[in-house]
Amino acid sequence: MSLIDKLENGQRLGYDEGLALYDLDLFTLGKYANKVRQKLNSNKVYFNINRHINPTNLCADTCKFCAFSAHRKNDNAYTMSHEEIMKIVDDTVKNGTKEIHIVSSHNPFVTPQWYLEIFKMIKQKYPFLHIKAMTAAEIDYLKRKHALSYEQTIDLMINYGVDSMPGGGAEIFDESIREKICKGKVSSENWLKIHELWHKKGRFSNATMLFGHIEDRSHRIDHMLRIRNLQDISLQNNQSDANIKQGVSLGKNELKGGFNAFIPLVYQRDNNYLKIDGILGSQEILKTIAISRLLLDNIPHIKAYWATSTLNLALIAQEFGADDLDGTIENESIQSSAGAKSKNGQSKSDFIELIQTSGLVPVQRDSLYNEIKIYN
Q: For the Radical SAM core domain, which residue ranges apply (predicted)?
């Protein structure tokens, strides 16, 4: 059966077929990716009201693509106090924020309890806030630095108020690439293991992929398929657990735990040591987003993260398989440090107006994609 026949019939694609998708013209890819998107999410474009907080940028690791992290002798290094963090939370709650997204560097001078107390303070004061925090890379660092097992850290995160995990730290799973761009960081195997453990707790997370640097298309396809494989495992594990506990066969939408969304992150070139010549073209970005929608048949949402692709391209991506823009953010430090025009976030009204102008339906969601308000 030909690749087009498989796309027409909605059949699952393998590695060679995934790679061959890049050879299709952009509009053919868009046609089939949008068909899947419409089936899963109709013409809705999701966004949430969130606030990113990066409590510290002091980092023990040196990832060549990173412009955010700093070291002890760097004048730009900082570590916020708990009071400073809570002041940010207090202010953003007044703006209607529903999610606090907390990601930090691998700071060797703070304890795991320092992080945990942040989560506890937020959740105790604002129990309605969804806390998305601690990447798999951060969890791995705590194991290396403080001898906390993955399981121990995950249990502590949950006990102190973390609701879901972000997808950071995945970069590209190919270890030869990781050796060059983020040597010493969590391995691809352990990144996947940590998310599997999180899913086994009945919790949700996201998955990212950093592309447009020294990787090639084959690495991207391999990365997506590893994500798909773990999602298969997580859904199967939770289906089995549900059957054991309830004695019934649950549908996919009733399962708990797994990846909510896949987020292809476009590499930002400024202020880092990777030194990539040239800019990844919009066509290659849109093709990669479309292919992720076609390959990741078991992940409900594809996010075109506007902070790395520009808002205009992220809106176009909604017709190439994506169905989510992320959120208002308010203050974005990681991507903007590397050149992205995302420092000051985006307003809710701008999201709504731009989505409607695109002929799509804006939907404000919570962190787990429950719909809060549809703007028809």
A: 45-300
Give the Cα-Cα-Cα angle 159, 206, 47 (nearest 5 degrees).
105
pLDDT tens for 300-313 read 999 998 888 788 99
Chain center to CA of 53: 15
Interatomic CA distance for residues 262 and 139, integer angstroms = 20
How far is it, in rounded angstroms, from Cα 343 to Cα 335?
A: 8
User: What structural domains does the chain harbor?
Assistant: 24-238+259-374 (3.20.20.70)
Please, what's the b/e burial string for 39-52 (b: 16 or more CB within 10 A of its CB; e: otherwise)?
Answer: ebbebbbbbbbbbb
Structure tokens at 287: 């093709």
Q: How far is the first Cα of the chain from the last one, in angstroms, to the nearest whole number?
A: 41
182 is in an annotated binding site: no
Give dist(CA 343, CA 348) in Å, integer. Answer: 16
In the chain, % of residues over pLDDT 90 = 70
171 is in an annotated binding site: yes
Instruction: Check if the beta carbon of residue 214 is closer than 8 Å to that of residue 177.
Output: yes
* Helix 82-93, helix 112-125: angle, nearest 10: 30
Neighbours of 344 (CB within 10 A): 11
- Mean pLDDT confidence for 320-337: 71
Residue 345 near residue 329, CB atoms below 8 Å: yes
User: Does residue 244 have a pLDDT over 50?
Assistant: no
Q: Label each residue of 201-213 as H, E or C.
A: CCCEEEEEEEECC
Which pLDDT value is given to residue 250? 34
Count of residues making up the chain: 376
pLDDT band (50, 70, 90) for residue 182: confident
Written as six digits, the tokens of 369 are: 């994609």
Mean pLDDT of 212-229: 96
Average confidence score pLDDT of the chain: 88
Beta strands per DSSP E along 29-112: 44-48, 50-53, 99-102
Q: What is the pLDDT of residue 376?
A: 85
* Contact between residue 60 and residue 108 where contact means Cβ atoms under 8 Å apart: yes
d(CA 366, CA 99): 8
